[in-house]
Specification:
The complex is a heterodimer of chains A (113) and B (118). With 113 residues, chain A is mostly beta strands. Chain A has strands at residues 4-7, 10-13, 19-25, 31-38, 42-51, 54-57, 64-66, 76-78, 87-94, 103-104, 108-112. The chains are: A mainly beta (113), B mainly beta (118).
Chain lengths: 113, 118
């Protein structure tokens, strides 16, 4: 019962470095998404995908790239890390139905120094 | 415009009392779903309850119920008989339907921190 696997759990980056947060699900879900969680801001949608080869921007997409080459994987790339990207990141997946709950990864705590 | 609004940054309740956490939403899509999630201090997201826009009755799951007022676009979470373990952050979320421009996107409110006092 893997569900949504998100790695790494913790990461420290220097300003300007790039990295990829990995997200994989084994439930054959069409919908996958990335959120960032900041104090007082709740969960804000970065990017989402409704199927392989289809991605779209969420509320706060700047500085992040995504791709969806398979149903299972939805990596999030930070192109040039900035201190403003210090946050907790969550990946989530669900079926593409209005009543489908989202299943979340464990989160990644990212610090950019 | 905010799709999901939670106006209570923090709430306090006495153990064994009931508490209502507010959530209002904004959508022009006739088909949508509303969710509540709990996030304890450990950080994981726990699904609590779901309400569909066409559901005639309010959803209930154990001590959780959803007070769905469609005309007012509100979906408040009611927790009965609060327990110390209910202390957590609570998020309201909405998934819009496939017919709208949001195409199934799931958006969250800012959250409400609930503290249960003994």
């Amino acid at each position: 019962n893997a569900g949504v696997t998100q790695t790494p759990k913790f990461q420290v980056l220097k300003t300007g470095q790039s990295m990829t947060l990995q997200c994989a699900q084994d439930m054959n879900h069409e919908y996958m998404s990335w959120y960032r969680q900041d104090p007082g801001m709740g969960l804000r949608l970065i990017h989402y995908s409704v199927g392989a080869g289809i991605t779209d921007q969420g509320e706060v997409p700047n500085g992040y790239n995504v791709s969806r080459s398979t149903t299972e994987d939805f990596p999030l790339r930070l192109l040039s890390a900035a201190p403003s990207q210090t946050s907790v990141y969550f990946c989530a997946s669900s079926q593409l139905l209005t009543g489908s709950e989202a299943f979340f990864g464990q989160g990644t705590r990212l610090t950019v120094v | 415009a905010q799709k999901i609004t939670q106006t209570q940054p923090g709430m306090f309740v006495q153990e064994k009392e009931a508490v209502t956490l507010d959530c209002t939403y904004d959508t022009s899509d006739p088909s949508y779903g509303l969710f509540w999630y709990k996030q304890p201090s450990s950080g994981e997201m726990i699904f609590l309850i779901y309400q569909g826009s066409y559901d005639q009755q309010n959803a209930t799951e154990g001590r959780y119920s959803l007070n769905f007022q469609k005309a007012r676009k509100s979906a408040n979470l009611v927790i009965s008989a609060s327990q110390l373990g209910d202390s957590a952050m609570y998020f309201c979320a909405m998934r819009e339907g496939l017919s709208g421009t949001s195409y199934g996107k799931l958006t969250f409110g800012q959250g409400t921190i609930l503290t249960v006092h003994p």
